[in-house]
Known about the structure:
The structure holds two protein chains of two kinds.
Chain A: H1 3-19, H2 21-43, H3 55-86, H4 89-94, H5 99-128, H6 136-160, H7 164-180, H8 193-199, H9 203-216, H10 223-247
Chain B: E1 6-16, E2 22-32, E3 36-40, H1 47-55, E4 62-67, E5 70-71, H2 76-81, E6 83-86, H3 98-108, H4 115-124, H5 140-152, E7 158-162, H6 170-185, E8 189-194, H7 197-203, E9 206-211, E10 214-220, H8 221-228, E11 231-237, E12 253-254, E13 260-264, H9 267-280, E14 284-291, H10 294-303
Amino acid sequence: MNWLAVWTxxxxxxxxxxxxxxxxxxxxxxxxxxxxxxxxTAIGSRIEQVEGVxxxxxxxxxxxxxxxxxxxxxxxxxxxxxxxxxxxxYELLSAPVSYLEIVIGFVGAAATKSFIVGSVILxxxxxxxxxxxxxxxxxxVMLAVTCVVFSLFGFIIGIWARNFEQLQLVPLxxxxxxxxxxxxxxxxxMLPPAWQTVTFFNPVVYLISTYRWTFFGEADVSxxxxxxxxxxxxxxxxxxxxxxxxxxxxxxx
Amino acid sequence: xxxxxxxxxxxxxxxxYADGPKALDSxxxxxxxxxxxxxxxxxxAGKTTLISIICGLVSPSAGSxxxxxxxxxSDYRAARAAIGLVPQEVQLEPFxxxxxAARFSRGLFGKARDDAYLQRMLTALSLWDKxxxxxxxxxxxxxxxxxxxxxxxxEPRILFLDExxxxxxxxxxxxxxxxxEELRSNGVTIILTTHYIxxxxxxxxxxxxxxxxxxxxxxxxxxxxxxxxxxxLVLTLGDGEDLPPALARHGLSRSADGTFVYxxxxxxxxxxxxxxxxxxxxxxxxxxxxxxxxxDIFVELVKNGADA
Lengths: 253, 308
């Protein structure tokens, strides 16, 4: 392994984030605060407890997931798309680095950035609410796993996208709906049985459910099954990336 | 030529792109350690494809490439570590600072940080004063220097320069040539592509000519320039005038339009012809010299079946 190259890519990506730190940190904090005010305080005060906690508290794990998923996909897709766009990717492709090293560098940096944003949102939430986390270690492990898995997914989008429009398409048309319909703001058990069945085809359901379990100790779906699904999604992403590099898909003629 | 003198060996490399065109057709080439080779050819001849294959940007459809003893596919790490590439287009991250860009390149190639080396290198490229400038703030010429700096950051043994002087002004072109000369004196092997004969003439040891995806010839510069440097003088004489026999020794040929064409390579022989014309009292209505275009030479070389 060329660890120096991995570190170089990672550091380079983190430096880019530092240049735009204000917008990458302040904007999610403001958005989340708005959610707390609107859903938590205004609407939430009229909603009875969900799964034994106040509605405002109930939506915290879902909100963190919503932001982290979008951030991970955006960070990772932009990270590899940008050198493609300006042409500087020639250097990555002609360097003595393996595809795995490129992926670790880019995905590692994107995951780190989203992890930081997720943590900042948790801190913001704890300003509004008194948060009790049932399984704190698992809570951070799950956050980290989510950041990595969705950064892998974002990396695929970054290689696939031919222009900025396509880059925005997937987060906008797929990620956001999946997260909203994945139980961020409600418990799956609140849905009619037919819709519950449909929901189980949404991979984000497992993520949010498991993450909510780390906070409240209760989950909509069985924990081992949810973890297996997350593992499966990660494996699919890794396989797709491996195929992309092997065939040179949209990066090497 | 001793095998250990060969730093780059290209054997039967071909490339057909997925969307159809055959960009390279079985190119074989050996490059000696420390030489400067200029690959000359018109746009679309396959120069960039050949370089891109050697550097790992394009996968060859057939053939193999050995860089300093390492196969570019099975032993790509060692092969690529030996190579520095300066691409044709300015492909840089606009918001990155010059020194950061060079450090990134060095790290990417697995070399430990060495600021003293980078300082020497950036100074030689007149970039040290700009090290804290963002790339987007630099002039076009400076951006090209940054590309060179990035390619040299990991101390490569072979440097590829893809059209280093396309679209740059005369002064910068001369600077680039000076940089190339300096690198060669440090033992770096240099392969550059160009479509300027003058450029090849100014800096190369050997010249390879690519046309239509084929390497038509590779030849020492001196002998090639004698062939490429051939010029023509077209004479239009007064009405009804013919060449006096005294000028027969110059071997002028008569064209269909009645003009006379004199082919020459050395300036001395032209002076002799002009002196003879004056002495014979021939009326010259018009006189035009022309250098054969590179295209003409390609056509001739390809027609002759790449005999060289």
